[in-house]
Amino acid sequence: MSLATARRRERTARRRDRDGSGPTVGDGPIARFPGATGAFALLGEVLMTGMLITLVALPIVTAPTALAAGIRHLRRYVAADDSRLAHFWADVRSGIVPGLGVGVGAVVIAVLLAADIRVATIAELPGAWLVGAFGWVALAVLAGALLLIAGAWSPELGWRGAVRVAPRLVARDPLGAVYLLVTVGVVAVVTWMLTPLLVAIIGCAALAVVAVPVRGRRRGADASR
Q1: Quick check: is 88 in a domain?
Q2: Is residue 108 part of a domain?
Q3: Distances (CA, A) of 51 to 44, 45, 154
Q4: What is the distance between the alpha carbons of residues 215 and 102, in angstroms, rounded to a whole number?
Q5: 36 domain-assigned
Q6: Which positions of the chain have pLDDT values less than 70?
Q7: Which residues are CB-neighbours of 167 under 8 A, at least 6 positions away?
Q8: In degrees, to the nearest 5, what angle opens at C-alpha 73 toward C-alphas 183 and 82?
């Protein structure tokens, strides 16, 4: 075996060791999220997921299902599980019809809040600014709740189960809920400043939903060492 061939095999073995697709090399620690060790590969997956979510969410009322399927796809990817797109589309087929109720409800609430903000903007009434501020905050909370519910959804749990479990998730990790609200704010600001980045930032928001719930586990694991 030539030296060049040996080096190529060693590089391949180390790469497979890092991404979890092959046996480990040496006694180094195993990555918690082996699929996320390649920064550029993860970026590409996030961008592709953003495009898929945008495509499925075009009818608007399908946005909850699009988010849930994209979040589950990224969760599988960072865990180095089977993340073929066939599983993404299977999640879409499983959740799209039952999720229409959630989507229609979210759209109705958003339209009412937008109308409230519009009236507060054009009305010259005392306290109109307060009504408008309440509308913006309520919209942010609605979007954060949608991210939380989409992250909790699974074909086994269903949409009703995801809605019921959402308050418990907030009570268990209130700071995580704040992070999701910050994510909503970042999405809004980036989209307002540069609309073409909407697809990419939606993928980043889906990744945030994957990352936020596990950040405390990482601290606990580090503290126990």
Answers
A1: yes
A2: yes
A3: 11, 10, 21
A4: 28
A5: yes
A6: 1-37, 216-225
A7: none
A8: 150
Alpha helix (H) residue ranges in 20-157: 39-56, 63-78, 85-95, 100-122, 128-152
pTM for the full model?
0.79
Give the list of residues 6+ apart from residue 153 with CB closer than 8 angstroms, or none: 64, 68, 72, 95, 99, 159, 162
Between CA 186 and CA 198 the distance in angstroms is 11
- For residues 64 and 70, give the distance between their C-alpha atoms in angstroms, rounded to a whole number: 10
Q: Residues 136-144: contacts with CB within 8 Å, 24+ apart? A: 138/113, 139/110, 139/113, 139/114, 140/181, 140/184, 140/185, 140/188, 141/181, 142/106, 142/109, 142/110, 142/113, 143/184, 143/187, 144/177, 144/180, 144/181, 144/183, 144/184
Question: Domain limits at 113?
Answer: 14-21+32-212
In-domain check, residue 63: yes
Buried b (16+ CB within 10 A) or exposed e, 140-161: beebbbbbbbbbbbeeeeebee
- Tens digit of each residue's pLDDT (9 = 90 or more) over 112-134: 999 988 888 887 777 788 888 99
Structural domains counted in the chain = 1
- Give residue-wise pLDDT tens across range 4-20: 665 666 666 666 655 55
